[in-house]
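Contributing new complexes? Match this layout with 6-O-phosphono-beta-D-fructofuranose.
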Amino acid sequence: MDITALPVWDALDEHADEIAFTTIRDLFAIEPDRVQRCTIEAAGLALDWSKHRATAHTHALLLDLARAAGVEARRDAMFRGERINSTEHRSVLHVALRTPAGQQLIVDGVDVITDVQRELARMEAFATRIRNREFLGHTGQPITTIVNIGIGGSDLGPVMAFEALRHYADRGLTIRYVSNVDGTDITEALADLDAAHTLFIISSKTFTTSETMTNASTALAWLRTHLGDDVDVARHFAAVSTNAAKVAEFGIDPANVVGFWDWVGGRFSMDSAIGLSTMIAIGPDGFRRLLAGFHAMDEHFRTAPLEANMPVTMALLGVWYRDFFGAQSVAVLPYEQYLKRFPAYLQQLTMESNGKSVHHDGSEVEVETGAVYWGEPGTNGQHSFHQLLHQGTTMIPVDFLVGLSSLNPVGEHQELLVSNVLAQASVLAFGKTADEIADEGVAADLVPHKVMPGNRPSSLLMYDVLTPEVLGALVALYEHIVFVQGVIWDVNSFDQWGVELGKVMASRIVPALRGGDVTAFDASTQAAVARFRARHAG
Ligand code: F6P
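Output block (do not edit by hand):
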């Protein structure tokens, strides 16, 4: 589908020219109930999107775009389990992972909800044994340390959730994450651990990912070094995967394996069995609360009219800036220290999904697709990159996230935190003119340096306090934003062919580093290989 051929695309193009000289200040001045019109509440989140360069007419046109692109039909197809992942011929059913027990969703003759609930029950049994200190290691001592080995979707979601929900975690357990094939990662993670108390969870959808398999082998060797070659591996290794055969080949006891399905994409899997470490940390009840938050946002996305639909609104604003203002990135700035890994998690979710240049049918896209997502917690970012957000030459739309209450209320910290996020959003939107600065008696030569251009868009996402439900709703919100944007750009948000060639190349370079033939490689790679070999010679 060539979206630029739709009449609404031209209308948006023209409208972007019209609105170019209208500022957010103007929009607030002419529309007294703007904030009310631009507030959406759903699943424990409140979105204020009033500080955007969008009028009611912009919103109407963007909604027309969503309808013309078939967002609703595509959404319903996803929820029905149709194979909308066209290049891998798979359903996309992460929403089934949080559908409550008792409902039915038949895909290819199988009720996937029953399957999901069965694996959840297995996760719960496993997590409960660990939490009750009933899971004993080789020496008969209880397992109290979990090391999750995985990468990409098998790491980023679990790490993010563990950090986000630390407040709810069993503090008697040590939980660590190893992802990088850089030996430093696993070395530092294991350095102070007692093998007798340590359990490794090998998390990998495919169970073939080079980094994860390498780290898993290193973990096994470490275990044998510390507990002897006859160590009972079943007491120290568990696995989460869709590939039971490969797990068995590695030698992990089937009793310690929890499964999921090919219809769960890696970056959409933190609420599947991939979340086993999350469940061990916060307990089965906490995990169910997380799922409930996801589900609440799913229901909102599925049933709310497009004009009051939070993910649809945020997705459309993203398309608006990406395609009509040339914005290249989106900053996600949580004013919530517990969400420090949320931007990193979103990077895979958004960029692996919509960093695409061809449509479903293989034809080239006509417009810009996925933006770069990045961010850091506030207020730290204010003392780092906010200068560019405020006065740089590039417009970067921002998503501000903040809880009204802290899980750690200390003195006046929360007032200061909230005052800062509100100040940043306000200054970005309304700025300060040269006249206003001059009126304050600032020297004329300094005035241009102090001008705050404003008119820089941001969304403000608020919630009462960070709970498992809120985290679930937040993640589901961004999952659905990704989905809607993928539909509008007509790209497959659920494959990731772009990561494959690098993996193949790396596997060919390994033998070259060990002394093999290098002639197949480019001159630069050959030179680097030669340098590596020289360093390791003798
Ligand atoms: O290389 C990209 C990727 O395939 C991601 O999509 C995925 O989340 C990650 O690797 C890890 O894959 P697996 O869970 O199969 O080890």
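Reviewers usually confirm one structural detail per submission. For this one: Residues 151-154, 204-206, 209, 212, 266-267, 352, 496, 499 surround 6-O-phosphono-beta-D-fructofuranose (CB under 6 Å).
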